[in-house]
Design goal:
Length: 124
């Protein structure tokens, strides 16, 4: 019932910025906890950030804290990931995920709905 489409990825030089967007459709979007995960080549999904149905509650991976900001605009059915001070190690496919719960979790298996991903490549 929840469908997600990511956009905004691309190639950026180290130190640059990108903003990822996740367009969501579904009748319960405003009450969903949402997360961003990433998968680098040869690695499993890694938690990046999450936001509750209440936009005041957020969580970040230690590796991105202070550099990335997650937000949501329920009026537009969209979740964003603002990525600043990008590093080559941020290179990965980034996925938006949703769960039918108001509670944040960092565990990827707790998220039911996933987008197709958007590629982020950071050059040295």
């Amino acid at each position: 019932q929840v469908q997600l489409v990511e956009s905004g990825g691309g190639l950026v030089q180290a130190g640059g910025s990108l903003r990822l967007s996740c367009a969501a459709s579904g009748r319960t979007f405003s009450r969903n906890a949402m997360g961003w995960f990433r998968r680098a080549p040869g690695k499993e999904h890694e938690f990046v950030a999450a936001i509750s149905w209440s936009v005041t509650t957020t969580r970040y991976a230690d590796s991105v804290k202070g550099r990335f900001t997650i937000s949501r605009d329920n009026a537009k059915n969209t979740v964003y990931l603002q990525m600043n001070s990008l590093k080559p190690e941020d290179t990965a496919t980034y996925y938006c995920a949703a769960r039918l719960s108001v509670v944040i979790t960092t565990a990827n298996h707790e998220y039911t709905y996933w987008g197709q991903g958007t590629q982020v490549t950071v050059s040295s």
